[in-house]
Amino acid sequence: MLYSCKLKSVCNLPVIYNKKINTTGTSNTDVPLAVPGMYQLDITLRRGQSLAARDRGGTSDPYVKFKIGGKEVFRSKIIHKSLNPVWEEKACLLVEHLKEPLYIKVFDYDFGLQDDFMGSAFLDLTQLELNRPTDVTVTLKDPHYPDHDLGIILLSVVLTPKEGEHRDVFQTQSLRLSDIHRKPHLWRGIVSITLIEGRDLKAMDSNGLSDPYVKFRLGHQKYKSKIMPKTLNPQWREQFDFHLYEERGGIIDITAWDKDAGKRDDFIGRCQIDLSALSREQTHKLELQLEEGEGHLVLLVTLTASATVSISDLSINSLEDPKEREEILKRYSPLRIFHNLKDVGFLQVKVIRAEGLMAADVTGKSDPFCVVELNNDRLLTHTVYKNLNPEWNKVFTFNIKDIHSVLEVTVYDEDRDRSADFLGKVAIPLLSIQNGEQKAYVLKNKQLTGPTKGVIYLEIDVIFNAVKASLRTLIPKEQKYIEEENRLSKQLLLRNFIRMKRCVMVLVNAAYYINSCFDWDSPARSLAAFVLFLFVVWNFELYMIPMVLLLLLTWNYFLIISGKDNRQRDTVVEDMLEDEEEEDDKDDKDSEKKGFINKIYAIQEVCISVQNILDEVASFGERIKNTFNWTIPFLSWLAIVALCAFTVILYFIPLRYIVLVWGINKFTKKLRSPYAIDNNELLDFLSRVPSDVQVVQYQELKPDPSHSPCKRKKNNLG
Questions:
Q1: Which residue range or ranges hold the C2 domain (predicted)?
Q2: Could you tell me the domains of the chain?
Q3: Using CB atoms within 10 A as the burial measure, which of 94, 148, 219, 665 is most buried?
């Protein structure tokens, strides 16, 4: 049995490199180990040297675990972006059996729960001298690749005998430590940050200007602003939220950079925000001086308490309690439209069980756990060990800030020595959820394009205020902080090119059709077009533009309800999506062999930019099409309401008055609200409409009867 505690004090013991432990003299090997005794092991985790790089930037975010007897007894803090981390942390461990060695493991921290293994080592406690400080250098190795050099860890250790009277004290402290480890994924508040502007930044380019952007970091949470080209006084006007995990607050690290194409970005300066010094429920305007550089950053920071975000057992269900359900329904009733516009709705997710999962371990089993994500909110279940049909029976609740968000549920296999293995994933748009219905969702691959092994049983409830949801549709969409880095893919580039070509061809075909009317290729068609042209031009009024769009939406709606919908599934996009995962694997293997694209960084960056521009243009055209195709009925109805309003306004109000109001609003906006975030309501609306790629990804797959869980169980028994 063992107990552990973490002490704040750090001993100033000298570090001796490559010193071997003396196994003679007063070594504890003379102690009869068969008789249980109580020993205190004081460890000072000094630093690491030449650790393995696990991130794409050639660095790692290392932390260290200490284990004895298979139990984790200490975990260090994370040192970001370093291969030579300095911890200087001290831990005291109380152990009874010295036969159990101290197991030291180093990991690279990744917020996506895919912590990478960086090496491990054993420390034989029987070789330590009692009551004598010893400096130890341990060499990290990977059992699967023993020839790889993974660096070293420097420790200072002291082993002393202890009496039994200290047992209760260490047991209490051990429980506190375990409580800390159980709660790191539940946040206690929200930090809302608005990046307003920069003033008098340092010129980093030869033209006397810079292309600045700003990076924010709070713990494992990161945010990167957009790039403002050729300016020393950038106006960002960006808003984002961080989760606050500690009651005391935390430190937000801020760095400003100058973007340079084809080479490493230039550092402009840094600053910090101490959240513990800010009062809650109040907006603070901060003008921060950049250290190690020049200029200021202007920000607005607000600390608010976290609302209903929780994890509980299935027996504790908010919506099954009549009082709590009534309170939730009242909070999102139509009468409370203007009460806290950011609180759009309430989401409850019951993660019940999974069946027929993929076997990720050599034993033919898996250690599955489940991650539930809604935008930047992320919660996880416990791990069910050695099971392909786990039962979690957990209830997750979230606040909905955007009804057009997508709920992502991912199943991983826990691996103690390596990063978690992906087992399957589903993405469920909130507007497609049927309340209170327990459904079996077929797990998909990482690209959400095809099925993988297993199903997961979920029961989801969504309660929201439709008016608040409509208003929030017209503001910028929340960006995910943790996203995969863009990389060049031949298949993705080709797919985006074909998608954009199809959008352009719609316009080209329309132009050919109109030109054919002028050429009288079909006399009847040309005559009808000529009469329509005369009628429309003679009677044209501005209000007819939104009215025509309104008629188009209405026509498509009646086609759908009458069963004459001629919409066809985009098989081209779907087929290319299914091939993308295989093509990406080929790209990875080719890059390992050749590494040609990575060496020519500038060309790669240009190609990625072209790839992304093609995606944006194609997605824009597809979103317009899907708005009129009623792909998301909520958004199509919202478009109908807006077009009706524009038609009435343009019919009754002269155009000059409308332009006058628009101009006055534009000119006085900065005076009325200096820190308002600029946005385009039409583009914000279209950002909520899924592209054809997203339609395929969010499509629910039907379970295959030939691969049902019951048949798999019978086959396993046989």
A1: 20-138, 171-288, 322-443
A2: 39-161 (2.60.40.150), 189-305 (2.60.40.150), 322-473 (2.60.40.150), 510-564+601-698 (no CATH)
A3: 94
